[in-house]
Design goal:
about 120 residues; alpha/beta; globular
């Protein structure tokens, strides 16, 4: 997992690593990849892994430096309150893309969804 993430081209649009034994070291690699200039990833699906607070914080740091991610799913990991707070802060601090609003889909899943006209 780690070598795959560090070798991903910046233009990749999605990373799906569900049930992939991603741990905090892998999450740190994901966070570093998100923070890299030119990272174009829009979807991160990292559910059902072994990411704890430390990994969630690393992803949150990368997410705070990234403007391309539209969907983040970290459900079914071992993330506690500290990781949840770091992720919530990173998501809240980002400006939603024009015409969208951030929506929390579940405990650890956020997505930018189109604004509906009423």
């Amino acid at each position: 997992m780690l070598r795959i993430v560090t070798k991903l081209p910046p233009s990749i649009g999605a990373l799906t690593a569900t049930f992939a034994d991603v741990d905090d070291e892998g999450a740190r690699e994901v966070g570093a990849a998100l923070a890299r200039r030119g990272c174009a990833a829009e979807t991160l699906w990292l559910s059902h892994n072994a990411i704890t607070d430390a990994g969630a914080v690393a992803i949150a740091v990368g997410l705070s430096k990234n403007t391309s991610v539209r969907v983040l799913n970290l459900d079914w990991n071992d993330i506690g309150i500290a990781g949840e707070r770091a992720l919530e802060a990173a998501v809240a601090a980002r400006a939603a893309p024009p015409g969208t609003v951030v929506q929390r889909m579940s405990c650890f899943c956020w997505a930018y969804v189109p604004l509906t006209k009423t």
